[in-house]
């Protein structure tokens, strides 16, 4: 830049001196400037020609600032090519890794057009890359559930999961998981869950069959024990306590079988009919009355606050089972002099059932596992209370079938709070028409 400026000053000065000598300073100054502009235009034309046609050749030897521009352009172009090669390598490795996955992977843009797919997508979904690039997913896989699923995700820009029979193999069951990322893209992953579903069905069938088979002999044993207990005067005195203990254990086994059958039914049956309107306040009153028959009831102070106008769409029997499990646990595990508060209320996020007590509480390391089958924070204490270890597992399954979630907060020595959250679409005012249900929304 400095050299070009000095060159221009020297040219102007020379033109002025010669022009003053010959008496034509303006003419020579104009000629000098025209020559300088022509020289600069020629240099810029060389630079433009290098950019358009000869960028891969040796650098041209140009003078002044144009030469600096050529050098800077060459450096930037080299850096760009290095980054391009690096990104191309990353993309190639990503595609190779995605192609090696056991799941089908499809990259979508809005409105659900295919940008890329791995090899498994052809086997699971019938999507062939690159032949199907740019096609809409709903046009290639014509299934009403998938169309609704994609439409909802596109409208709300949220991720989601659904199950679908493979369009390439009617015996293959797929789990489709859609993850939204960026502003206009989504990643669809299809996983084969056929074997998993088969194993779950085998386990569910085994539990159901075993429970049914155990129920008959257990009924006979309980009948004989009841007869012995009713005829105590003819039994040796030392048998009395033993018969009572056997009756208690038979009752515990009966409850265990009933919970296993209930859990098996929840896992194997379809979603409950959402057109049934459940008046939760009345249900809670019935549960509290039933809790009066439990051992330890009445030693605590129990208070119920339930909005009588707030109802739920769902299964009466299933919700009764879930709510009673939570309340019965609070009664059995809250010591004498304790307090139990039951609240049913609505908020901005839908509705909640909250059961709080000021009992012994639960250590933090147990909270995440309380809904597992047969998991007990205190095994000896739970067995002494006659628990089966399946109550909270049943609660979790029932809430999942009603689009709800279970939140457990507890602190040792200060008590526990079990909260069931229900989304707004499950909640209805008891004053509304029973025809306005989620299925018709």
Q: Helix tally? A: 13
Domains counted in the coordinates: how many? 4
Radius of gyration: 39 Å
Largest beta-sheet details: 5 strands, antiparallel
Q: Note the overall shape.
A: elongated
Q: What is the assigned CATH homologous superfamily of the largest domain? A: Histidine kinase-like ATPase, C-terminal domain
Using the 3D structure, state the CATH architecture of the largest domain. 2-Layer Sandwich
Order of helices and strands: HHHEEHHHEEEHHEHEEHEEHHHEEE
Number of strands: 13
The third-level CATH topology of the largest domain is Heat Shock Protein 90
The first-level CATH class of the largest domain is given as Alpha Beta
Poorly predicted regions: none
Strand content: 15-25%
Give the rounded overall mean pLDDT.
79
Q: In percent, how helical is the residue content?
A: 40-55%
Distance between the termini: 72 Å
Structural class, from helix and strand content? Answer: alpha+beta
How do the strands of the widest beta sheet line up side by side?
2-1-5-4-3
Description:
By secondary structure, this protein is of the alpha+beta class. The strands form three sheets. The chain has a five-stranded antiparallel sheet with strand order 2-1-5-4-3. A five-stranded mixed sheet has the order 7-9-10-12-11, covered by helices on one side. A three-stranded antiparallel sheet has the order 6-8-13. It is built from 13 helices and 13 strands. The protein folds into four domains: about 90 residues; about 90 residues, 2-Layer Sandwich (Beta-Lactamase), CATH 3.30.450; about 70 residues, Helix Hairpins; about 160 residues, Histidine kinase-like ATPase, C-terminal domain (Heat Shock Protein 90, 2-Layer Sandwich), CATH 3.30.565.
């Amino acid at each position: 830049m400095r050299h070009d400026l000095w060159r221009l000053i020297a040219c102007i000065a020379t033109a002025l001196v010669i022009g003053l000598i010959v008496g034509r300073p303006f003419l020579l100054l104009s000629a000098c400037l025209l020559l300088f502009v022509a020289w600069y235009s020629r240099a810029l034309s060389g630079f433009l020609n290098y950019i358009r046609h000869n960028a891969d050749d040796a650098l041209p030897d140009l003078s002044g600032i144009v030469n600096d521009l050529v050098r800077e352009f060459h450096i930037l172009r080299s850096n760009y090519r290095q980054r391009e090669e690096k990104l191309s390598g990353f993309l190639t490795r990503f595609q190779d890794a995605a192609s090696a996955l056991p799941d089908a992977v499809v990259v979508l843009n809005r409105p659900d057009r295919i940008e890329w797919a791995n090899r498994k997508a052809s086997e699971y979904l019938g999507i062939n890359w690159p032949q199907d690039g740019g096609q809409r997913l709903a046009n290639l896989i014509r299934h009403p559930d998938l169309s609704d699923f994609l439409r909802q995700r596109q409208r709300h820009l949220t991720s989601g999961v659904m199950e679908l029979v493979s369009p390439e193999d009617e015996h293959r069951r797929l789990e489709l998981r859609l993850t939204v990322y960026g502003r206009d893209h989504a990643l669809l992953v299809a996983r084969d869950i056929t074997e998993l579903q088969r194993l779950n069905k085998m386990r569910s069938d085994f539990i159901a069959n075993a429970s049914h088979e155990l129920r008959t002999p257990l009924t006979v044993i309980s009948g004989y024990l009841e007869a012995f207990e009713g005829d105590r005067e003819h039994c040796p005195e030392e048998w009395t306590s033993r018969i009572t203990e056997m009756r208690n254990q038979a009752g515990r086994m009966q409850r265990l079988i009933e919970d296993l059958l209930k859990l098996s039914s929840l896992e194997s049956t379809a979603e409950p009919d959402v057109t049934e309107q459940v008046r939760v306040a009345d249900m809670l009153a019935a549960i509290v009355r039933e809790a009066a028959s439990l051992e330890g009831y009445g030693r605590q102070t129990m208070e119920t606050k339930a909005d009588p106008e707030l109802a739920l769409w769902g299964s009466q029997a299933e919700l009764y089972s879930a709510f009673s499990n939570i309340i019965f646990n609070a009664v059995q595990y809250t010591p004498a002099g304790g307090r139990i508060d039951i609240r049913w209320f609505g908020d901005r996020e839908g509705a909640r059932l909250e059961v709080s007590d000021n009992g012994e509480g639960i250590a933090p390391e147990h909270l995440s596992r309380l809904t597992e089958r047969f998991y007990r924070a205190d095994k000896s204490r739970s067995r002494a209370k006659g628990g089966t270890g399946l109550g909270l597992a049943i609660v979790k399954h029932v809430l999942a079938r009603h689009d709800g979630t279970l939140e457990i907060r507890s602190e040792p020595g200060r008590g526990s709070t079990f909260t069931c959250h229900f989304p707004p679409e499950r909640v209805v005012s008891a004053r509304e028409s029973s025809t306005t249900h989620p299925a018709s929304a």
